[in-house]
Amino acid sequence: MAGKTISEKILSVKSGCDARAGDIVICRADYALGTDGSTPMALDYFEAMGGHRVHDPGRILFALDHYAPATSRHTAQLHRRMRDFAAVHGIRLYDVGEGIGHQIVVESGRALPGGLVVGADSHAVTYGALNAFGTGIGSSDLAAILMCGQMWLRVPETIRVTLHGRLPDSVYPKDIALALAKALGADGATYQALEFDGSGIETLDLDDRLVIANLAVEMGAKNAVFPADEKTLACVKHSSDACVTAPDADARYVRQVEIVLDALVPQVALPHQVDRVEAIANAAGRSVQMVYLGTCTGGRVRDFHQARDVIKAGGGVAAGVQLVVTPASREVLETLARDGTLADLISFGAVIQAPGCGSCCGTCGAIPGDGVNVISTANRNFKGRMGNGAANIYLASPASCAAAAVRGAIADPREIQ
Amino acid sequence: MTAFRREGRARVFGDDVNTDYIIASRRKRDSLDPLVLRQYLFEEIDPRFAASVRPGDILVAGKNFGCGSAMEVAVTALLGAGIHAVLARGFSRTYYRNAVNNGLLPVICDTTRIHEGDSLDVDYENGLSVRNATTGETIGAEEVPGIMLDILSAGGLVPYMREYGDFRI
User: Fold this and answer.
1) Which of A53, A121, A140 to mutate to test the interface with B (most CBs of B within 10 A)?
2) Residues facing A290 on adjacent strands
3) CB < 8 Å from B in window 377-416 of A
4) Is A76 on the interface with B (CB under 8 A)?
5) Which phi and psi angles does A304 have, rounded to 5°?
6) What is the pLDDT of residue A2?
C-alpha cells in the first residue's frame, strides 16, 4: 500500500483510523475558532440542536474581529451575546482590538505541527504554515463541535507544490501565492490539499509561509500544509506538544506543481477574481486612490516593514491616495509602535484602524467610493468585497501596494527600491 | 427518497459565483434573518434577482459555486427565498458542507444544457438525477457521500444532532 501524505497522516492520528484520501473520518479538533462573523449563527444552531453545555470549552476560542469595533447597534449586540456565552461556558474570548482570529491562533501557539485546528472562517487554512491541518467550516459545524467536540472530514487528495530556489529582491511570498492561484485557478484545488516541499521552503520564514497557506483557499483547497523545520519549531511556543509530520517517500499525489522562485516577478490580481493574475508590470500606470495594508494575508509586522521601506525609498505617499493600515493583531500593533514603523506610517498620512479584519470584507473600517481603484494586501477582490461594488480591487504584495502608494498608480516595486 | 425530491424553475448563473455575490458580507452585519437577507440576494451581479425569485426555484450554476467565504448566510438566505436545491458543475467545499447541513440540496452535475426558466425535477431513484422537463433530457448527478446523505436525509445538521447527539459513520 502506498505511503501517506502529511494530511493523511494528521487525519489518521486525529481520527484513530487509517485515513486515506477519499475516506470520511470523524475527528476531534485540537482547537476550533469562532469569529463574530460566524459565531452568532453557530449559537442559534447550538440552541436549535438542544445544546446546553459546551463539550470541551478549553478547545474553543472566540475572536471579535469582523466588526472591530462594532459599527452598529446590531453588531454591538452580536458581540454582547458572544461575550455572555463565552463567560457562561468558560470559553476564551479575544475581544475587539485583539486582532484577527487566525493571527491569534498562530500567536497563542494553538496551531502546532501535526495538529488539527479548524475555524468557522475560510482562512483557517493559514495554520498549515505550521505543519498543522487547518481548514474552514461553517457555523453549523462549529455548533456541532460545541455540542459533541466532533466533526467529520473527507480526507483530501493532495497536490504537491515544489518550491525551488530563492525569491529575487522585491518579490515576496504574496507573489508566489498569486502565481500559484494563476497556475491552479480558483477551483484548481477544490476538495484537495496543497502540500509544499522543495529547497525553496528553507528560504521562507514562518511569516512568509503564512501568506502562502492563507491564499490556498482562493484555489479551492481544503488545507495547505508545509513541512516543519527549525524555523517552524523556533516559532512554536509549546514545542513539547508538537508532532512534526512528514510525508512518506511513497505518498500518493494527484498532481505535481513546480515553482521556480528565482524566475518570479511581482504579480497582481486584477478585479474581480483572485486567479486573474498578471505580472504587475502589465498593469502599471493604472491610477490608484486607496491603498490597503492589513488582513490575515498581509497584516503582519514583516508586511508593514516591507511597505514602509518602499514608501520611504519613494519619498512618501502620492497626493490623492488614501493609505489605510490595519495591523492583524494587537501584538503586531505593539511591535510596530515599539520599532518606529507606526510613527513612519502615520507620518506618511496613513489612517490607522483597530487590529482586526478591518476593510477586507466591508464589515467595518474604510470603504472605497464609486470608481475607486484599490490595491490591497488582502486575499479577495470580489466585486463589492470591501463594501462597494462600484470599486475595483487589485491584490498584490505589501511592497507592490506601497509602490502604488508612492506613484498614485500601479507600479513595479523594483522600480522604486 | 422524498428528502431529495425537488421540482422547480431553473435560475441560471455562471462560473465562480462566490458567497459575497450570493449575499454581501456587509449585509449580515445588519441582520442574520434569512427573510431579511433574501432581499439582497445576488445584488452585485443580478440586481433584479431578489424581486423575481419564486419559492421552489432551483439555482443552476457553472463551476466552483459558493467559493470564497465560508459564511453560512449564503445558504440560509437562499432557503429564505424558497430555493431548496442548487445544481452546479462544482461547489467550493465549505458551501457544499453548509448546504448539506441546512438541507439545501447541492447537486453536482453537467449544467451546461440547462437554460433560464427550464422546468427541472431532481429526484433520487437508483441515485441522484435531474430531469429537464423542458428539453426532456435526464442528467446524471454525482452521488452524495455517506455521512452527508445521512445529514440530508435527516433534514440537516440540526435534526441530525437532535437525533444522534454526535456523528456516526
Assistant:
1) A140
2) A322, A374
3) 380, 382-385, 387, 389
4) no
5) -70, -35
6) 81
Whether the CA torsion A406, A408, A412, A415 is positive or negative: it is: negative
Among the partner-chain residues A37, A45, A385, the one whose CB lies closest to the CB of B20 is A385
Sign of the four-CA dihedral A276, A280, A286, A291 = positive
Of B69, B70, B169, nearest to A26 by CB-CB distance is B169
The model scores a pTM over 0.90: yes
A349 and B CB contact within 8 Å: no
pLDDT tens figures, A314-330: 999 999 999 999 999 99
Q: Which helix (H) or strand (E) holds A273?
A: none
The domain boundary residue, chosen from A242, A260, A278: A260
CATH superfamily membership of B2-164: Aconitase, domain 4 (3.20.19.10)
Q: Is the pLDDT of residue B1 over 70?
A: no
B14 Cα distance to chain centroid? 14
Assign residue A282 the CATH number of its domain: 3.30.499.10
| Residues forming beta bridges with residue A269, ordered by sequence position | A277, A395
**Number of structural domains found in chain A:** 2
User: The complex's ipTM?
Assistant: 0.97
Residue B43 has which C-alpha cell?
A: 445584488
* Per-window interface: A 236-295 vs B, CB < 8 A: 273
Instruction: State the residue range of the domain holding A369.
Output: 267-415
- Cα(B5)–Cα(B120) distance, integer angstroms: 11
CA distance A382 to A392: 9
